Amino acid sequence: MDMSKTDPPYVLAADGLTGIKKYFLYGMLAMLLTIVLTLIYSFIGITGTNLVDSIIYGGSAVGLLIIIAIISIAVLVFAALSLLGLLFGLRDIRRSSLKGASIYSGASRKLRKIAISLLILIALYYVLLIFALISSGAGGTWVSVISAIFEIILIAMGILFAIKLADVYKNLSKDTSQQRFNTSATIFVVSVIIIAAAGIVTLVSTALSAPQTNSYVSQGLPAPQNPVALAIGIIFLIDYILLTLHFYFGYSASKNALTKLSGNMDILAAQPPK
Which CA distances in Å does 85 have to 21, 32, 46, 71, 90? Predict the structure, then answer.
C-alpha cells in the first residue's frame, strides 16, 4: 500500500521495529560479554585462583576481580538497554498498523512485568555471585543457599518469558515475512530449555556436594575436585553461544523488516493505528 513515511502508522511501525532491533543488538552484546565472563570463571576454576587471598593480601587476581566486576556491570547495562528496546518496541508496534498489532497488546503488558522482575532479580543475582566469589566458610554457605533460591526463581520466570517472547517472534515473522524471526524463536526456546536443565543439575550437584566443596559452581572449583561443575560450565558456554545466535538472527530479521517497511511493501494493514 502506498503510504508516506510521515504517516502515523508508518512512524509507529518503524519506531517499533527499531526498538526490537535494539533489543536484539544489545542482547547480542550482553551475551558476547557473558561468554567472556564465563571463560574467565573457567580460568579461575582450572587454575584454582584464590580471589579471597588476593583481596586480603594483594596479588595478581585483584586485577582479575576488577575485570569481572567491570564486565558484569557492562552485561547489566546492555541487558537493561536490550529490555528497554523490547518494551518500547512492543509499545509502538501494538499501536501501529502492523497486520497483527492487536496480538502484541496483551504480550506487551505481560512481558513488561516479567522483564522488570527479571532485571531486578538478575541484578541481585550478580551481586550475590560477586559475594560468592569473595566469601568463604559460613558466609559462602549462606550466599550459596540464597543464590540457589534466586536461580530457581530465575529459571521459572525465564521459561515463562521465553514462551511469551517466542509467540511475539512468530507473530513478527508472519507480519514482516521474515523467517529469521522464527529461527530466532526456535533457538531461543531450545537455549532456555538447555539452560533451565543445566541450572537444575547445578543446584542438585551443589546440594549433594561435600561441605568443603559446596561453595557454588560459579565460584570456580578446580576441575579435578568438581568435574560436574566443569561439564555444567561447558553446557552453559554452549547455551550462551546459542543465545548469541538467537539475538543475531533476530537482529538480522529486524533490520530486513525495516528495509522492507521503508519500501512501503505490504507490511502495514489497511486500518487506522490503534
Answer: 8, 18, 37, 21, 8
Q: CA-CA distance, 99 to 105, in Å (whole number)?
A: 13
250: nearest Cα among 19, 18, 13, 25: 25
Residue 44: strand, helix, or coil: helix
Cell output for 185: 524463536
Burial class (CB in 10 A: 0-12, 13-18, 19+), 188: buried
% helix, strand, coil for the chain, step of 5 = 80, 0, 15
d(CA 40, CA 255): 33
- Give 265's contacts (C-beta < 8 A, 6+ positions apart): none
Residue 90 above 60 pLDDT?
Answer: yes
Quick: pLDDT tens for 94-125.
Answer: 777 666 666 677 777 777 777 778 778 777 77
Question: In angstroms, rounded to a whole number, what is the distance separating the alpha carbons of residues 58 and 262?
Answer: 57
